[in-house]
Hints:
The chain is α/β, with parallel strands linked by helices. It is 45% helix and 10% strand. It has a 9-stranded mixed β-sheet, with helices on both faces. About 16% of the residues have low confidence. Guanosine-5'-triphosphate (GTP) binds next to helix 7.
Amino acid sequence: MPTQDLFLIIAVAAVVLILGVGTAFLLRGRKTPPGTYTSTRDANDQPAGSGGTAVAEPEAPAAPAPAVEPAQAPPVGPDLGVEQLPEAAVLEVPAPVRGRLARLRARLVRSNNALGKGLLALLSRDTIDEDVWDEIEETLLLADLGTEPTQELVGALRERVKVEGSRDPQHVHDMLREELVRLVDPSMDRELASQRHPDRPAIVMVVGVNGVGKTTTIGKLARVLVAQDKDVLLGAADTFRAAAAEQLATWGDRVGVPTVKADVDGADPASVAFEAVRAGIEQEVDVVMIDTAGRLQNKVGLMDELGKIKRVVEKQATVDEVLLVLDATTGQNGLNQAKVFSEVVNVTGIVLTKLDGTAKGGIVVAIQRQLGVPVKLVGLGEGPDDLAPFDAEAFVDALLD
Ligand SMILES: Nc1nc2c(ncn2[C@@H]2O[C@H](COP(=O)(O)OP(=O)(O)OP(=O)(O)O)[C@@H](O)[C@H]2O)c(=O)[nH]1
């Protein structure tokens, strides 16, 4: 073969190689942009966003998303509208979900130090007389554990101290840990129902009174689901507070998740929820999450409206998960809310927010007992990734640290 031909072949091969490597690089990252698919899943597939003007598509990133450290992410406040976001924002990469509670345990330790340390100190006294048992009981009640679980725990500890003694600090620690874990109940199913069905997305509805952190929780949860490589769509059925839809869309934009919202203020929340589920089915996403307006549990009309939202959604798809968001700092008041909401919409999981700001970690046990519904997620701060799947053992370990 002439030398010229040989050079030509080598040059062509080099160009092909460079192009191949470059393409592979560009295709790395998330499996697909959310709401869009590289190939159609069925014959009726529509491109994302073609289902109606109400779907606010997230702004496309200007360049492939670099790994943005979540710690550098600007915090989203409740009044930060989408207009204030920089144009063509780059998508953020949410923090991994595994081990989040362990990562955030310092927050729990800080706020619930008195509970764990106090109990350990009391149980390690040389003599544990009636006064000490009274103090132990008081500590538990102050942490919002509730009367019945407190009696149960004190009863079990009394029995064990009588039989096993309380001289060895490690033994006291292990004994208390065992009894607390039993109360928090590791056997409850805390899995979030976010698995897509063969023909439709999983539907998650989020409910609760005003200001408990519903919108923030949906924003954080969208990040959790994106981190698990799920395609998510948000429905802004909180049409009561004008800024709520923008707040939700902003959370979505940050991780490339689209939001369905009303074009007009005060629209019917049930129809927004319906449209969101319709868009979710059309776009074949994995999960649709519906935000609802905060409402007091004693406002009958508003509670009826919540029931209606769920019924309307269920004309297209059953609601897989109804998450009741409770603010841990409101203590026993949360129990009343939980009861009424449960009667109206059959709550399937609790999200306990603001646990970073209260010493009343015992509310976890009280709520689960009252409702028979597990705490599935806990909010431990205002940061975008400060939401953790709840884990009974990790929680108790954090209390006793
Ligand atoms: N410290 C702390 N603050 C939180 C947490 N979760 C939410 N918040 C804050 O609680 C405030 C209210 O949050 P929102 O998400 O607007 O509450 P909402 O329930 O949607 O409010 P309405 O729509 O008015 O009912 C915001 O300032 C959040 O940053 C948490 O886990 N810890």
